[in-house]
Amino acid sequence: MTDRTEQGADAAGTPKDARPIKLACRNVWKLFGSNAANFIRERDGKASMAEVAAAGLVGAVRAVDLEIRQGEIFIIMGLSGSGKSTLVRCMSRLVEPTHGKVEFEGKDLLKISDAALIELRRHRMGMVFQNFALLPHLNVLENIAFPLSIQGQDRPTREARAREVIDLVGLRGREQFYPRELSGGQQQRVGIARSLATKPEIWFLDEPFSALDPLIRREMQDELMRLQTMLHKTIVFITHDFDEAIRLADRIAIMKDGEVIQIGTPEELVVDPATDYVAEFTRDVDRAKVISARGLMRACDGSDHGGTVAPDAKIASFSASIVAAGKPFAVVNGTGKPIGEVTPQAVIDLLAGIDRSGAGA
Ligand SMILES: Nc1ncnc2c1ncn2[C@@H]1O[C@H](COP(=O)(O)OP(=O)(O)OP(=O)(O)O)[C@@H](O)[C@H]1O
Ligand SMILES: [Mg+2]
Questions:
Q1: Ligand 2 center–CA 81 separation, angstroms
Q2: Looking at residue 337, what DSSP letter applies?
Q3: β 99-104/21-32 pair status
């Protein structure tokens, strides 16, 4: 896998944070129950969980603010029922938010006409679902070409495009197979190909791999990363699995009871979890694969260096060599200038799960 944070910039060298915002949620609410819209409007878009419950409403999504940048892989995590699917559906207005704004390239999606919304969904958004959602009576080629027929493309054009994406996801030779003749992984490749057929700019994936066994799941994660290096989509990806999240994510949003309680890079969530709930998600993570040299570095104290590392290099990538060298490694910036050092002891402590941050080590 490519180490995404290590790159810190896209192929054109644009720093990630300088990329335009593709999609934003501004105080987005989705409440289920009668009179929900009045309830939240009367309170000017503010209500506690207790107030929502007292009014007999379900607070599926509450006061969500987030910004997703172009080309970013933005992961949404949370326990079952925390509101992930509802939030993602609000982003494409498959579910109508009760309150707030969803901005697509700065335009309020809740204000555009139904026709414009359908256009947007058909041409600029793609979706992949956990249960694959293939049409059982259509073969692979027809399933993948299906959204193009909805767009009104003629048969030769849509089949040509379907064949392109079939190649892209490695399904050549299976064009005539029906969904029931495919494995779970193959079915999800069809789901992915179908959602890519229309060349969406923003791609929503709701637990696309959770029905797959662990080996196939990893393979599909690699596949997604491979596709992303070619296609540079803006991706919103839901998962329950923090390991999956850290493999794929630029940033992760953690949801609980309809709220987003923290948004950060995998490293930020692991090093500085906002709540016990976030800490619980990150508990079993291999910290050496998430924490970077920058996260472990201290000021140089004049000792000899046994090597150099980049600030964004993950500890796991140099733990063996620094321990073998038995000397600190200089952490150097892009011009080769040392900005600090990492000691073998700090690496050993991290690997052993010893936290000396309070002890001044
Ligand atoms: N149509 C609906 N009517 C009433 N409540 C709903 C409706 N849809 C969702 N909910 C409730 O909203 C909450 C969030 O549901 P959602 O499906 O978004 O959760 P999720 O995080 O995607 O869960 P999972 O991980 O199980 O898919 C849940 O409490 C759910 O019961
Ligand atoms: Mg869901």
A1: 7
A2: -
A3: antiparallel
Is the pTM of the predicted complex or chain greater than 0.85?
yes
Please tell me the distance between residue 269's alpha carbon and the centre of ligand 1 in angstroms: 24
Query: Where in the chain are the domains?
Result: 6-281, 289-352
Query: What is the DSSP track for 80-146?
Result: TTSSHHHHHHHHTTSS--SEEEEEETTEETTTS-HHHHHHHHHHHEEEEETT----TTS-HHHHHHH
Residue nearest atom 12 in ligand 1 by C-alpha distance:
60
Q: Which pLDDT tens digit goes with each residue over 60-90? A: 999 999 999 999 999 999 999 999 999 999 9
Half-sphere exposure of 333 (CA within 13 A, CB side): 5
Residue nearest to atom 11 of ligand 1 (CA): 60
What's domain 289-352's architecture? Alpha-Beta Complex (3.90)
> Is domain 6-281 given the CATH code 3.40.50.300 in the classification?
yes
CA of 258 to the centre of ligand 2 (A): 12
**Ligand 1 site, residue 58, Cβ cutoff 6 A:** yes
Q: How far is the CA of 84 from the centre of ligand 1 (A)?
A: 8
